[in-house]
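Whiteboard transcription, Tuesday session. T.W. wrote the structure tokens on the left side:
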């Protein structure tokens, strides 16, 4: 059995609101900014490989009033980490101690991912990482799962895919991956144990 992990929502509790609470004090204005300006639809294009400079210029042209706030978004990307899910890190350490292959398939801007392995050393435990921004493809598109299968020599029926987003889980299931929808990261040990029967978790 092998493991294929997402990062955001599994290892990293990333939340732009956590950072912008210090920048835009008014709740209604901040909610509007994060839903209409620097929203998920905009951010995911960078996860698919669009350059941050191009993304910023596009938004500033539409919302010149928020040019300062827009430019803060990616400069402070890691300040949006509320916490690291330590239980997930412990699970990874345990799996690697058991010589189980563990890989990453994550939607993440390649520009913001630079030096992550230096700043978060547990990432070096993985046997391989696919970062969507580098590959210019993204979950839940089928192509990025096929890339993981080929690059990491995965048999989906013998691979457990763990992700916090149901659309990514459903895409993996179509390719016969075993899956864990990790809607509550603190339950990762119990969920892995349920389908893999690792009693030490």
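and on the right, the sequence the group agreed on:
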């Amino acid at each position: 059995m092998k493991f294929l992990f997402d990062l955001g929502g599994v290892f990293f509790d990333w939340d732009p609101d956590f950072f912008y609470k210090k920048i835009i004090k008014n709740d209604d204005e901040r909610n509007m900014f994060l839903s209409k300006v620097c929203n998920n639809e905009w951010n995911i294009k960078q996860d698919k490989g669009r350059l941050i400079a191009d993304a910023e210029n596009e938004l500033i042209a539409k919302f010149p009033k928020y040019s300062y706030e827009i430019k803060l978004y990616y400069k402070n990307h890691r300040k949006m980490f509320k916490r690291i899910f330590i239980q997930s890190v412990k699970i990874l350490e345990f799996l690697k101690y058991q010589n189980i292959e563990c890989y990453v398939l994550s939607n993440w801007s390649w520009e913001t991912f630079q030096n992550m392995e230096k700043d978060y050393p547990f990432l070096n435990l993985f046997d391989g990482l696919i970062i969507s921004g580098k590959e210019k493809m993204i979950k839940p598109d089928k192509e990025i799962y096929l890339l993981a299968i080929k690059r990491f020599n995965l048999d989906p029926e013998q691979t457990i895919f763990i992700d916090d987003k149901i659309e990514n889980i459903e895409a993996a299931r179509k390719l016969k991956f075993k899956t864990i929808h990790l809607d509550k990261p603190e339950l990762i040990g119990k969920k892995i144990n349920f389908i893999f029967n690792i009693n030490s978790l």
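Someone added at the bottom: The mean pLDDT is 95.
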